[in-house]
Model the fold of this input.
Amino acid sequence: MSTVSLYRKYRSQTFNDLIGQDHVIRTLQNGITSGRISHAYLFTGPRGTGKTSTARLLAKALCATDGPTPNPSDDDPICKSIAEGSCVDVVELDAASESGVDSVREKIVEVAEYRPMIARYRIFIIDEVHDLSRSAFDALLKTIEEPPAHLVFILATTEFNKVPPTIRSRCQKYEFHRASMADLVSRLTYVSEQEGISIEPGAVTAIARMADGGYRDALTLLEQAIVATNGKITLQAVYDQLGLVPEESTDRLLLSIKANDVVGVIKLVEEMTRAGRDPRAILESALYRLSDLTRASYQIDRDPDATREASMHDVSVQLGRDSLLWLRSSFAEAHKVIRDISLPRLWLESELVRLAQHAGQAPAAVAAAPAVAPAPAPSVAKPAPKPVETAAPAAVAPSPEPTPVVEPEAAPAASADLNSAEGLLAELLRVLPEVAHKKKLNGVSAIALEDGNLVLEHPRKFDVDWFKENAKREGYINDQLTKLVGTPMRVEFRVGKRNHSSQDVNSTVELPYEGDKLAQLVRETFQTDTPEAKP
Done:
């Protein structure tokens, strides 16, 4: 006989058991106490945050024998039947599998007029309601707009934007938040104690971090760890189970990149891959660790483990805040690109080597940018030779070796004048591939650096609108700028005056010759005084 999974076994059975959603529970209980019960509720939020559990708790509170009550009793027979899923008056539908209009008509519309058999209300809980088809929503709309007094709808969704506005406007909306690290650690510790499982505090923290704010995900990962180990659950066992890289190895990788240690980076990548770590998992581990180090650097959400907190603080100081932000941006971009790479291990090695070679340039560019933006005076450019001197050996050293690890385009970046708007535009046009973005920038000129933005003047409003009508197009240019300077930077387009002398296919200027002027031009061109009449 199969055992009950942990997330089902420890599903919240009362409002007091539900953690992390106090704002939702308080509002629901106040509404029940005051008698302001809505005919339709819409629960929205990430997966595994308690939406379906809260829907069942609300059904208990409304249908309890002595209800409606904000604190229904577990001993109530109706509440027991709701918890077991056997209450005939509480119907749960999964819109992902019953999304058609026929299912909605058969199970909701046609039975809506019938009064409940046992409970006070007939309640429909529709999970993942955004998966309903358009015709199913249309069939549901009339019933949810003017339902009978005994009918209550509770809709749950992870994609609020896909629910039609006509449905959203008729529901009370409740947003469920991701769980905090403290709440997840507390819940995992409680479940481990109830199950009689011995687990290291570091392992609990690692599982909570990987759950990404989801209670169900956290309990599922804990259950996998219990199955994978016969005795005490250690931090290393969790790393092996999840395929993650230990924090110590991740720290060594980050510090090697910071120190321009190419040999150390290559050896660490080989060590991680030999241990069975996937290239994508290496990037994910680095991103999680960079997030923790950034919080430690700014003293946000201090870790309860004093030893781990001290270790994070020491590494964050060695890296520096500028490098932390630059590394987070670089690793995030690599994580986005690696899914389309055919040889991910070799590509990751190449990318990390590139980062190691140019790690020292990002903080210099960050420091120089604020001085240039407000007043682009000649004296501001004096600190520029410093990064050139330090970065020159990295650009020159690999030139004798035709290794594919070093990208040819990255070498001139060390000598480019990234402290001026013109130099930054020139470097941007150099690194952009031959795609539509580059063609649409023809004729653009750099105006200034203002508040961290590169101001560009474009002669064609049509092309400016092309960038702005799609956030991804403008975001691609912003990503390339961020790569160049090592700190978040955006492009700001301004439309300049058109140059009518150039033949612009997009321009709509008035023709210079028309009417009498055009006839005079024809006579002068063909050397005729007057048009000859046809014979």
